[in-house]
Design a protein that fits this description.
Elements lengths: L7 E5 L3 H13 L3 E5 L2 H7 L5 E7 L7 H11 L5 E5 L4 H9 L4 E4 L4 H37 L5 H15 L4 E4 L6 H10 L8 E5 L8 H5 L5 H5 L3 E5 L6 H20 L9 E6 L11 H9 L3 E3 L10 H16 L8 H9 L5 H15 L7 H5 L17 H19 L4 H8 L3 H10 L9
Parallel strand pairs: 1-2, 1-3, 3-4, 4-5, 6-9, 6-10, 7-8, 8-9
Helix pairs in contact: 2-3, 6-7, 10-11, 12-14, 13-16, 16-17
Length: 447
């Protein structure tokens, strides 16, 4: 009953005695009830409330129960409607069922029978809502996977955290190493949030000076004016000069104060996403950045570096290769085994930004001559694997890692076509299937 008691049951009936009788009974049964004396009154304000079931008389002056049903169906296909009918209205009630009404109840009726019908309607509505939410979540997941690629456990967990942040968007701090695409991630969070229809303004704090502060933050063209109640993304907030930090803090405090204590001024409060490299916990609480972060909020999202998701490097690199090839109208060069080894073993200190740059160079330069990844990185491929850094891995484990990356590369190149992968790697189909099973890979991941 705890879930039901949080939902509104709308009673629409021009008969005041009937309306009040049903309302009193349902209120004693711990429902929240809202009553309306006409179809017009209900349709005017119904969508501003959290209504879960509508109980409407079929015969009313003006807009009757059938009118209410049809208008609701044009805006909400799943909201259950129960119609109250007289004995002679049965054919019309049957027509209403065909038009999407949940059920009808004939006068005179026992209140407990109506309550049972409402409980069934609520259960049905909840089930449909859960399925709709699940479908929406799946669509979001798919859209994000196409941008933030990677099949590693680390990346899968991060995407789930990102979706959760987007679904309940509040002021947020993105923390991650340089080059981890925090700018793209902030944009995705906005696009997947309930605020996606509101403005999004990106401010690069690296280029904000004391002279530019007013232009970039305040005034008619400033970020806070342009965004309204949307989302402001403050990239690299820890790069702000000291004087700008003071002015930003003053502006935030002024807005919070007016929003909470002087509502008549009607100051709009945007949601703020900011990014930084340093962990907020390591920032002194009484420093300007520390105080600003405390005003923004405590919600943090840690963006993983490539070191934390090495299994995704080959897939990411292939995505960047495809993008670069399309941009330069060139063919996609194939990776040789030594290229895969270099990609997998390199530490990538500048993360995705560096990986993308190497992919673009690899496409451009390989149009005229063969250039290796190790040449572009200016490293010796024979020195790529440093056993001292791999203290928890023996030769067998290192070879298995390399084998897995080669198979991933081949699967990506062949879009999961097993026959083509076998031909490319020159191994029997049975052997490939065994290795896919061993490395927990599935062809559907690459189709």
């Amino acid at each position: 009953m705890s879930q039901i008691s949080q939902k509104f049951i709308a009673i629409v009936d021009d008969d005041q005695a009937m309306r009040e009788s049903i309302s009193d009974y349902l209120t004693r049964a711990n429902y929240h009830v809202k009553t309306y004396s006409s179809g017009e009154e209900f349709l005017t304000e119904s969508f501003d409330l959290n209504i879960s079931v509508v109980v409407s008389d079929l015969r009313m002056p003006g807009k009757n129960g059938m009118d209410v049903l049809k208008e609701l169906r044009s805006k909400n296909e799943t909201l259950p409607v129960i119609l109250i009918t007289a004995h002679g209205d049965i054919p019309t009630a049957v027509e209403a069922i065909q038009n999407g009404a949940f059920d009808f109840i004939e006068k005179p009726f026992e209140p407990q029978n109506l309550r049972l019908m409402i409980e069934q309607a609520l259960a049905n509505y909840q089930s449909k809502s859960d399925k709709s939410a699940l479908k929406s979540q799946s669509i979001k997941q798919l859209a994000i996977e196409q941008i933030l690629v990677g099949q590693s456990d680390t990346m899968s967990k991060f995407r789930n955290q990102l979706i959760d942040c987007a679904n309940h968007l509040k002021n947020l701090v993105l923390v991650g190493d340089k080059g981890t695409e925090k700018t793209i991630i902030a944009k995705i969070i906005h696009q997947q949030s309930p605020l996606s229809h509101l403005p999004y303004v990106h401010v690069n704090c690296k280029i904000v000076s004391e002279l530019l502060f007013d232009k970039m933050f305040l005034g008619q063209e400033g970020a806070f004016s342009r965004v309204g109640e949307g989302v402001v993304f403050l990239e690299d907030i820890d790069s702000l000069p000291v004087e700008c930090r003071k002015r930003l803090l003053n502006e935030l405090e002024r807005r919070v104060f007016q929003y909470e204590y002087r509502p008549k001024i009607k100051v709009k409060m945007p949601q703020i996403i900011c990014s930084m490299v340093e962990l907020p916990q390591s920032v002194e609480k009484h420093s300007l950045i520390g105080v600003i972060l405390s005003r923004i909020g405590k919600v943090q999202l840690q963006v993983p570096s490539l070191k934390e998701r090495p299994d995704d490097i080959i897939e990411l690199f292939n995505m960047y290769l495809t993008q670069a090839a399309n941009q330069h109208q060139a063919s996609i060069p194939s990776l040789l085994p030594e290229d895969v080894l270099t990609l997998s073993s390199y530490e990538w200190p500048k993360n995705q930004r560096q990986l993308k740059q190497i992919a673009e160079q690899y496409v451009r330069l390989n149009r005229t001559k063969r250039v290796s990844i190790s040449h572009l990185l200016d490293v010796n491929p024979n020195e790529m694997i440093d056993i001292s850094r791999q203290s928890n891995k023996n030769l067998r484990t290192l070879m298995q890692d390399f084998e897995r990356q080669l198979i991933i590369q081949a699967m990506i190149e062949c879009s999961g076509n097993i026959s083509q992968v076998c031909s490319l790697l020159k191994i029997p189909r049975r052997t490939l299937n065994e290795k896919l099973l061993k490395h927990e890979l599935n062809r559907t991941m690459f189709i």
